[in-house]
Specification:
This protein is an all-alpha fold and about 180 residues long. About 80% of the residues lie in helices and about 0% in strands. The C terminus is likely disordered.
Length: about 180
């Protein structure tokens, strides 16, 4: 195996899980996320020599991922449906109940996040889950900072409305502030 191939393989093994988490937040679907990461890593591999000598391979892969996802949003608009209901939240304070309520919060947040329009969801993911600056997120989405702020404001307001009353404050303040 050539040194370049070995370096790329090490990068692939180390960073794929993190890329998959981000892709899942962008797409809302495990299989679409895997496809998105696979496409991004294939393009990163093609640019590997250039990136290895002076670039940032992970930043390149993430940017490719964001651009590919934005292109997919523009090509097709498929309405999403979310089957099923969330489990009831209990008021007990034992460890199992705390874990259950954290899981219920995560499920509620995931379901609420998937109800957002694609651009708002991408803005929220880039800004709050990926911790990108407003300028970086706007550049990745191909819009102005003001437009990004509008997407964020609308997205966060929709998340607060979509989350059950007992989760709204915790999720939007604890995770997004």
């Amino acid at each position: 195996m050539e040194p370049d191939e070995h370096d790329f393989e090490a990068f692939y093994r180390a960073r794929t899980p993190a890329l998959l988490r981000t892709a899942y937040l962008l797409t809302g679907d495990r299989h679409l996320a895997e496809d998105l990461v696979q496409d991004a890593l294939a393009r990163t591999h093609r640019a590997w020599r250039r990136l290895r000598d002076g670039g940032n391979p992970e930043a390149y892969a993430r940017q490719v991922m964001y651009h590919l996802q934005v292109s997919r949003w523009r090509r097709r608009r498929v309405p999403e449906s979310l089957p099923g209901d969330l489990p009831e939240r209990s008021d007990g304070r034992d460890h199992a109940t705390d874990a259950t309520s954290r899981l219920a919060l995560r499920l509620a947040l995931r379901q609420a996040l998937l109800t957002l329009p694609a651009r708002q969801r991408a803005a929220v993911v880039l800004r709050y889950f990926e911790d990108r600056s407003e300028a970086e997120a706007a550049e990745l989405l191909g819009c102005r900072v003001g437009t990004l702020k509008s997407h964020l404001a609308r997205g966060l307001a929709a998340l607060r409305r979509a989350l059950p009353d007992d989760h709204a404050g915790t999720a939007t303040e604890g995770m997004f502030r």
